[in-house]
Amino acid sequence: MFVNPFATHFESLEEFADRVSELLQCPITIEDANHRLIAYSGHEHYTDPARTATIIHRRVPERVINSLWREGVIPKLLQSEEPVRVAEISEVGLGNRIAISIWKNKEVLGFIWAIEMNEPWTEHQFDLLKQAAKAAKNLLLQLQIRKHKKEERIQEFFWKLLTGHFSSSHDIVEQCHQLNVHVYPFFSVGIFQFQQHIQTQVERQIDYLLKTTQQLAIPLYTIDHQRLIVLVAPSSNVYGEVHIERFFRSFMTQMKERFRVDIMMGAFGNVYECYTKIAKSYEEAQTVLKMKRAFPHQLANIQSYQHLGMYQFFDLLFEKKRHGDFHNAALEKLKQYDAQHHTNLVETIETYLDCDSNVNETAKTLNIHPNTLAYRLKRINEIGNIDLGNMSEKVKLYIDMKLDKYRTT
User: Fold this and answer.
1) What is the pLDDT of residues 183-208, one digit of tens each?
2) Residue 314 in domain
3) Do 287 and 175 share a structural domain?
4) Do 243 and 199 share a structural domain?
5) Which domain holds residue 272?
6) How buried is 396 (Cβ within 10 angstroms: 0-12 exposed, 13-18 middle, 19+ buried)?
7) Which residue numbers delimit the CdaR GGDEF-like domain (predicted)?
């Protein structure tokens, strides 16, 4: 007669982990779907450095996760309900393991990891591990229900921050403590623009990457149609932007390589210390996205508001220009000359300024001889009465040309 060794009430997941360890005679760790430690068995058995680090930090080290992806272990666990044998990965301190996913319908709730001791596993041990995974499902579902209720409150709180609902840093910090959201000294708001509306499966993949990254802290995030909005917290203000840019590149690369999900672009606002500035940083990130759409070539490699340069002011300048507060007669003369003589002097001067007045680079970009460029620049000077040696004139002309393009986007 078959007796289920897990058909009993467990007071905690730790008690369950000890029961699995007792039956399998090896150390056990139980993780959620994002590799955060939920429970682990006692230390009477051998353990390896990767397991020790996981227990200390309450999460699997990112270098271990990356190695498991490279070795194809995690893709197998996300596709099968069968146990997966994991060979030793010595460079990250991971010994031989047997792992299994905990499933509910088509969703992975977590994982059970067993260190393989000296003796090879028997069929009975594999059967016990599969029974343990089925028994763990209900225990993890109870955790998931509590987590979802908390996440709903956190989502509402984050949107209040993004929309400037709070006027007091004290109120924000107090709310963070109530929701158990860690308060970091520095932060920025970032946005990832996806190509399509973010569906449930992609939401899980996003959650997985955000919860497993250890490049910087991400205390809050939310999804809005085609956008992922994150609150990122670099450890330092000095190199904050560098760390955020590195995280953005890594996140976009991993979404593509691991899940075949393309992200169109990313953007983030300035790094601040006062939490009442979250709405400001969010607005700055939206400005970066807006400018990247308007000027995809010039801003292809720009992600931060700080590096947006003159484009930071385009909405304000465009509004003043729209009301006739300023006018560039030189640009109008060049546009009229191009229209009448079918020339491209406006394109020439814009490219010349794009290339920081570098003659050879400009000629190469326009696919013309440098002598031809020199002739055009002379005509531009004559027709528009533009002094190309005067930085103020060049900057004014350059901004006005970009504003013209911005008006038509």
Assistant:
1) 999 999 999 999 999 998 899 899 99
2) no
3) yes
4) yes
5) 164-307
6) middle
7) 164-291
